[in-house]
Amino acid sequence: MPGSSRFRPSAIESCTCPFGLTHAWDGDASAGSYRLRLRGQTTIIPATATVTVRVPDGMAVSRTGAPTNVRGGVAIWHGEMGIRRDFEIAFQKPLLGRIATRVWGFLTIPAFRT
Fold this sequence. Notes:
By secondary structure, the protein is mainly β. Helix content is about 10%, strand content about 40%.
């Protein structure tokens, strides 16, 4: 079945699924957020996962929904998946960058529409 993997019972297996989504976040040029939901299943030995999120260039992580290790523009979570694990990572430009981006956006809006 596409999109699924089978693992032997009582075996320790590792599965790496790297993928990159360049436009997977909500927001504008000054700030935004990224949401991800991992679905697991109940097992005797809980499955673990590592989630790494790189924020857009020029922005920094401002808030995370789960305890996350933040280094620069990269947020890394590692832990047990459980049945469902939700992530939300908010990011933004520094204060002056946010102000400049919003002022520029306001100044480039046409005064009259034809």
